[in-house]
Write a structure and sequence with these properties.
The chain has eight helices and 20 strands. The protein is of the alpha+beta class. Among the domains are: about 140 residues, Gyrase A, domain 2, CATH 3.30.1360.120; about 80 residues, Alpha-Beta Plaits (2-Layer Sandwich), CATH 3.30.70. The chain has a six-stranded mixed β-sheet, sandwiched between helices. The protein has a six-stranded antiparallel β-barrel with strand order 15-18-17-16-19-20. Strands 6-7-8-5-9 form a five-stranded antiparallel β-sheet. A hairpin with a 2-residue loop joins strand 2 and strand 3. Helix 2 packs across helix 7. It is globular, with a radius of gyration of 20 Å. The two termini are about 30 Å apart.
């Protein structure tokens, strides 16, 4: 649910967070829960059982009309033509110079497409996409028309099965459907930002209270935990899922960010010549995973060193609740990005030994 003014907005579930004792923070124009019982407790609940996230700050755009497919083929890197109704793909919007405006999900619905974009980029994204709208394309910001809840964890399907008669066993990862959930027609998808199995529910504002109560009441039988932004960040980092503004932005190429798998080089898209050049010439840096020794935590902006040489910088870092060790993502000179390479991370003048490892950090996630 987007914020149309400069004031901090509240999601439809705000009062439930406060009642549950959440520590609230301002994030991307919204008042959001950063944690309830604590990041480690919440993180491990999602890895081992089930958790509930409020993601109503995310943005949703509708793209329709006879020119919708051509429009999205031009403005996103993945091959939208491969999507049949109910299918979803991860993609990114490139800049004219080959950077990344945002990463996003593209939903193929029956008669239109839905783009799910990052909360901090809603206005920027809409302005960017609007530049490419032509006759036969209708672009509408629907962000204010949804509350968004995510149910994540290995027991997510068991909980959802208590709320809907839809055959979840036949629902593949990265697909969506509209069905009754707690007696209300809801668009939901089998997607998530945690690596675990899970569902994301797009709920009309008038049904948000009903869905929150239904999910939490059913969830109580499964020891459902409420999950804040803090654990959402550690969960996605363990899976090497990029965070816009940290790991990717308009100065990073999708190639150097390791996102070749969402680039279709057989179609024309905004910024393609530069992206192709990056692919063919190979970028001078690449985004890689590091595991570090000790307890100190690498943070965004910390330098990566090879002897006396500065060879890169950390983009995201945390102490992994699952692995019980410091982990980080960072850009490093390409020749030093091979798995097993040893480097050091400068943490306020102290050197932390670190090793490049194969992604993801956490290997036992439950997503289907």
């Amino acid at each position: 649910m987007t914020n149309a003014t400069s004031e901090v907005a509240k999601t439809p579930f705000h009062d439930y967070h406060v009642a549950a004792g959440a520590r609230m923070v301002d994030f991307a124009g919204f008042r959001m829960p950063v944690q309830y019982k604590g990041i480690q407790v919440e993180h491990l609940a999602v890895r081992n059982n089930i958790g509930l996230f409020d993601l109503s700050h995310m943005g949703e755009f509708e793209v329709s009309g006879p020119g919708a497919l051509d429009f999205l083929q031009k403005t996103t890197t993945n091959n939208v033509a491969e999507l049949s109704p109910g299918k979803i793909q991860y993609s990114c919007m490139p800049t004219e110079s080959g950077g990344i405006v945002d990463d996003l999900l593209v939903y193929r619905l029956e008669d239109s497409y839905m783009l799910v974009v990052n909360a901090a980029n809603i206005d920027k994204n809409f302005a960017h996409l609007s530049k490419y709208v032509t006759d036969g394309v209708k672009l509408v910001d629907r962000s204010s028309e949804f509350g968004l809840l995510a149910i994540q964890g290995p027991n997510a399907e068991k909980l959802m099965a208590e709320l809907t008669d839809y055959d979840l066993t036949s629902m593949a990862y990265y697909t969506s459907t509209t069905a009754k959930v707690a007696g209300v027609d809801v668009l939901f998808s089998r997607t998530g930002y945690t690596g675990e199995d899970g569902f994301e529910l797009y709920i009309a504002p008038e049904h948000c209270d009903r869905l929150w109560k239904a999910v939490t009441e059913a969830g109580a039988r499964y020891d459902l935990e409420l999950i804040g932004l803090g654990a959402r960040d550690t969960l996605r980092l363990e899976m090497k899922m990029a965070l816009y503004g940290n790991d990717i932005d308009e100065t990073t190429s999708p190639v150097e960010a390791g996102l070749n798998f969402i680039i279709n080089f057989d179609k024309n898209f905004v910024g393609k010549p530069t992206v192709v050049k990056h692919r063919d010439e190979k970028p001078v840096r690449r985004l890689v995973c590091f595991e570090a020794e000790g307890k100190s935590v690498p943070r965004h902006g910390f330098l990566i060193m090879n002897g006396d040489d500065e060879v890169g910088h950390v983009t995201s870092g945390t102490f992994s609740p699952s692995l019980q060790k410091p982990i980080a993502l960072g850009y490093i000179q390409r020749e030093l990005g091979k798995i097993g390479t040893s480097v050091e991370i400068d943490i306020r003048g102290k050197r932390l030994p670190a090793t490049v490892v194969k992604p993801p950090f956490y290997k036992n996630a439950s997503h289907k």
